Amino acid sequence: MSNYSIRDLEQLSGIKAHTLRIWEQRYNIIQPKRTDTNIRLYDDQDLKLVLNISLLKDHGHKISEISKLSLDEMGKIVMAISDQKLSYPDQIHALTISMIDLEEERFEKIISTNFLQNGFENTMTNIIYPFLNRIGTLWITGSIGPAQEHFISNLVRQKIIVAIDGQVIKYSPNSKKFILYLPEGELHEMGLLFASYIIRSRNHKVFYLGQTLPFRELIFSYDVHKPDYIFTAITSVPANDEIQPYVDRLSQQFPDTKILLTGYQVVGQDIQLGSNCTIINKISDLIDILS
Questions:
Q1: What's the pTM?
Q2: Residue 183 Cα distances to 72, 177, 187, 216, 288, angstroms
């Protein structure tokens, strides 16, 4: 079981911390534990409750009415709503609950339905990718446990690999060459795998080198393939004080290649970029480059 701060709940549910405090005081609908210094702490059940309340509110239920429902009554209404076609934020809430409960069947139902209705790329772009970004930040800060993050990440990873295996690529004279890799010690592969799918779907060539690649091996691969682009995702490694030297080294080592960077350690950080470097803030940035 994980412990969440009120800011964690805000990030996972989209409900402002101020609103959560009002609900607690006015409706007694959620009762967090308190630390010795009186800081609110929430557990998995609290998070599920807040996500369910958020879903009900988004579907027209007033908080004053919701506060009078028992947990069983609330659960039945939520299940009835879940049988309908949900919005993207609602789907992300549902995935969060499946992660908390380590419930593969619910995950499969949500994802399979969306693949059929919206297609693989739209489902990944609008539901899974924002969801993974959200929980990735919480995992790094220790707000959710490794079991929950690994559970959901491995399920998503399986889906992406199956989708990549099913791709039929038609290369042309305009096709570009991409090397995709993670720095040595970096294991968070999800964004890289999806980038591989996106690039291949636009009929470009991908040399996928995967996790924890030593820099000397990147140089070797570059010399073999002479790519137009190098794409990497830096989530936790290199560490903060090593990021700038690493980015500088990439830029200087491969001056004739465009370097695409993404991940928690570079997005929104004060990184100085060489003229051949671009930060990918969201997947649509990569799609725009490919277009």
A1: 0.76
A2: 47, 19, 8, 11, 25
